[in-house]
Amino acid sequence: MVTLSTNNTFVKIDKGELVGYEVNGHQFIHQKGSPGWGSVDTEMFPIIGPVNEANFRVKTPKGEAIQDQHGLLRQMEYDLEQQTATSAVFAKQYQSGTEVSNSKFPEKSTEAVLSWPYDFRFEKSFLLTDEGLEIHFKISGEQGMPFMLGYHPAFKLHSESPVIIAKDKEISLEAVLAVGNRALPVEDCSSITLKDEKQITIETEGFGNFMCWTEVRNMVCIEPISFYPYAVDQTELHQGFQKLDDTAEFKVVLKPKA
């Protein structure tokens, strides 16, 4: 477990997963073991969304790749590369064609292993400042590699009627619950505020969109995404790819209100 701290703020990171963000005694992050989701945060890469209706295949310029929901990156483990009192850097390295075990098999998937026809390195770094928690993502790999990126954090809810503010519009928890598994899209948006017992703003660079998901009232996932996957049929998911130009960098800042 990696712990970062400054003043009255504490961050806990377990093998690259943000499992705690406590500010002045208030926990903003969903806790493992609580109803709703068995994880706390994860990355969606190199695809976002389900592919079960596409036989777990995604089209790429190098042919079809075997993927499962939200890609294969989440099935790999991070290595801790650097750590200070207020920062930590984690990375995953992938070699083209390497088979990665699929934890969804056999209960939720027909595919025992996943693979991707490109080399890449994926870096996730945390920086705790007086203003908030910065989470940086850096992707490097083969020139022209197709990819999508989504960040999937879950926030703990403390009140009965939390509200999400996006582009000056209010989104109720009921509205997110009503959409179900598809997740509620918030497109062309780089900043969302969650108003609960305490308030936190999620600011982003590079993603361009969000989607919101939950099936319970004690947590909500507010997810920066480069592409909303339900905008197309699963067989056409490749339409949401962007192409890697040497490196790509993305940023998420969690800003609690004092």
From TrEMBL:
Keywords in alphabetical order: Calcium
Names of required cofactors: Ca(2+)
Pfam families in the record: Aldose_epim (PF01263)
The UniProt record lists the keyword Calcium: yes
Keyword Calcium among UniProt keywords: yes
InterPro entries: Aldose_1/G6P_1-epimerase (IPR008183), Gal_mutarotase_sf_dom (IPR011013), GH-type_carb-bd (IPR014718)
Subunit structure, interactors included: Monomer.
Protein name (Swiss-Prot/TrEMBL): Aldose 1-epimerase
Lineage, uppermost ranks: Bacteria, Pseudomonadati, Bacteroidota, Flavobacteriia, Flavobacteriales
